[in-house]
Specification:
Belongs to the class-III pyridoxal-phosphate-dependent aminotransferase family. With 508 residues, the protein is of the alpha/beta class. The chain has helices spanning 18-21, 65-68, 77-89, 101-113, 127-144, 165-170, 174-177, 215-218, 226-244, 271-282, 305-308, 350-359, 373-388, 391-410, 446-457, 487-507; strands at 37-38, 41-42, 44-48, 51-54, 60-62, 118-124, 152-156, 207-210, 249-254, 285-290, 329-332, 344-349, 416-422, 425-430, 460-461, 463-470, 473-479. The chain starts with 17 loop residues before the first helix and ends with a helix. The structure holds pyridoxal-5'-phosphate.
Length: 508
């Protein structure tokens, strides 16, 4: 590991941490001043590589890319050039009037990246739009195939699928749903009780939530095997189908590796295969939300999370390659264009796409900015860079280091309940009691305190969240550096984050 920072004495606001002092070298601002804050937030001057540069104050090491977006880091000339070139050629063209080369190329690239498992792509601007489209295409598909009674969706507690009404309805994120219950399609009396096997759902809603796949809080005993755990999860899903009536279920919707709602929780081996088997048995579709965990973020076998979560003994059904559990629909965003443009996509698998081709069906859906050429130019350049520079391989290698260092440095801390993740997608869950796993009172805002301490005192930006223990309780931070991160930077991130964590709990 790199040079350690001493956390024994708390640096004052004016005094920079010793490690952070090195970061001042290329900051032109007055470094003796604390960061300028408007409503508590630093005012940003620029961003370059792995660093944010506030208007006044030393640079901040970016360990989360905003909300897991900046997968290539900041200020990449090649992407800026590609965006500018597209803007010079033309900035906007309606998808109803023209075919645009970058959009066509990006769609082809996306389909190829799935090894042809996904056969159609719709390019959009946000994760919420892509998830909303996934819900609508599911319903329209079942209308086309003569099964209009399939109107129920099964999703999971502690999940987030977006902020628009359909996407929020399918989300199981307690606090983000709460203010809008009256609008959520129609109101769903979701108990959101993660720790029970209570498959709460309201019969008046199309949206039903079952417990997430969260081994840290759900294994019956520490020694419960993966197979036994997965068998219980499968039974929960089967029970939800049975309760709703299997022929009324349109789709199961899930994040393969749960992001902000659960703090980077990968599935237990065998889980995705079990979910797909249940979907297939009852004729429902499987929808993956890879908005946060996709496009290389979890490293491994390919750019899509499902390619990286392969299971050795999974033979697959007709849609799958051996070892990988392929979805019917898939949403991607965030790392898709790395923040250089607001980009997302809905990918359509063979079952639905081939029906559409064969029957000449067109998805009744469209946004003004769908298939935006500048968005496509940015995403294409980002993805080509990821491919050309072998960055998914770096995600795998640096991700292993990141996970190991986080566990070494924080695993034994009395208030760290769990360190979990995959690739460059790692979460640290904080608990009041390590043995009982009791979370902190939400009002203490423990994760936010860690975030604030990390950015103000240790000049490292992490993403914080609440709700990972269910019902809005439970605190976690997420560490999601750019795919270009080096071992040295990984060590630096871990040390700074660990110092911030230690200080916050020392003072609590
Ligand atoms: C898993 C997941 N799905 C969907 C969304 C919504 O994406 P957006 O904020 O781009 O609309 C998010 C955003 O954080 C997300 O993390």
């Amino acid at each position: 590991m790199g040079q350690l920072i001493s956390c024994s004495s708390k640096p004052s606001r004016q005094m920079l941490p010793r490690k952070a002092e090195g970061d001042m070298a290329d900051s032109s601002s007055d470094l003796s001043q604390p960061p300028s804050h408007s409503d508590g937030l630093p005012v940003l001057k620029m961003a370059k590589g792995h660093y944010w540069y506030p208007a006044d104050g030393p640079r901040i090491l970016d360990a989360c890319g905003g909300a897991g977006v900046a997968c290539l880091g900041h200020g990449r000339r090649d992407v800026i050039k590609a965006v500018n070139a597209q803007m010079e050629a033309y900035t906007y063209a309606s998808y109803a009037h023209f075919k645009c080369k970058p959009v066509e190329e990006l769609s082809d690239w996306l389909i190829k990246s799935t090894n042809g498992k996904m056969e159609k792509a719709y390019i959009m601007c946000s994760g919420s739009e892509a998830m909303e489209a996934a819900l609508k295409l599911t319903i329209e598909y079942f209308g086309w195939v003569g099964q209009p009674q399939r109107t129920n969706f099964i999703a999971r507690h502690e999940s987030y699928h977006g902020t628009t009404l359909g996407a929020l309805s399918i989300s199981g994120h307690h606090t983000r749903r709460e203010p809008f219950h009256a609008l959520l399609c129609p109101p769903n009396n979701n108990n959101n009780n993660n720790n029970s096997n209570n498959n709460s759902s309201s019969s008046s809603s199309n949206f039903h939530h079952i417990p997430a796949c969260h081994p840290y809080r759900q294994r019956l005993t520490p020694s419960e095997s993966d197979a036994a755990f997965v068998a219980r999860k499968r039974a929960e899903l089967e029970a939800a189908f049975a309760r709703l009536g299997p022929s009324t279920v349109a789709a199961v919707v899930l994040e393969p590796v749960v992001g902000a709602a659960l703090g980077c929780s990968p599935p237990v081996p065998g889980y995705l295969a079990a979910v797909k088997a249940v979907c297939r048995r009852h004729g429902a579709l499987l929808v993956y939300d890879e908005v946060m965990c996709g496009m290389g973020r979890v490293g491994g076998g390919g750019v899509h999370a499902w390619q990286s979560l392969g299971e050795d003994d999974y033979e697959g059904d007709e849609d799958d390659d051996e070892g990988v559990v392929v979805p019917d629909l898939q949403a991607v965003a965030k790392g898709f264009a790395g923040g250089y443009q607001p980009a997302s996509a809905l990918l359509v698998g063979g079952r639905v796409a081939r029906f559409m081709e064969r029957e000449g069906r067109v998805f009744t859906h469209g946004h003004t900015y769908q298939n935006h050429p500048v968005v496509a130019a940015a995403a294409l350049q980002v993805q080509r860079a990821v491919e050309r520079e072998g960055l998914v391989g770096n995600v795998t290698a640096q991700g292993e280091l990141l996970g190991r260092l986080l566990r070494e440095r924080l695993g034994q801390h009395p208030n760290v309940g769990d360190v979990r993740g995959k690739g460059l997608f790692w979460g640290v869950e904080f608990v009041k009691n390590k043995v009982t796993k009791e979370p902190f009172e939400p009002g203490l805002k423990v994760a936010e305190r860690v975030h604030t301490r990390a950015v103000r005192e240790w000049r490292v930006l992490v993403y914080h969240g609440q709700g990972c223990a269910g019902r809005g309780r439970g605190d976690h931070i997420m560490i999601m550096p750019a795919y270009t991160v080096s071992s040295k930077l990984v060590a630096k991130i871990v040390e700074r984050v660990a110092c911030a964590v230690e200080e916050v709990f020392r003072e609590l």
